[in-house]
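User: I would dearly like some help making sense of a protein record. This is the protein in question:
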Amino acid sequence: MKELGLLSADMLALDEWEIPRDHVVINRKLGEGAFGTVYGGEAFFDHIGWVAVAVKTLKVGSTSEEKVRGGGAGRGEVPGEG
């Protein structure tokens, strides 16, 4: 995709609240709803180690509004921050 000009370095940069995929392990499916599926897993943080997390994946074709609303689930907090 990069060769086609569809992928830039900016698109690969993580936002402040995002966690690199290689720091997340998904263990099991917790549930499924209109917008996607929620999995239980663990995420690694440099300052505290491994922490239990919920990971929501969105269905293909979800709108921006659905992604923000997320069916009632809010963004999580990183333990020890904020």
Helices lie at 9-12, 64-69.
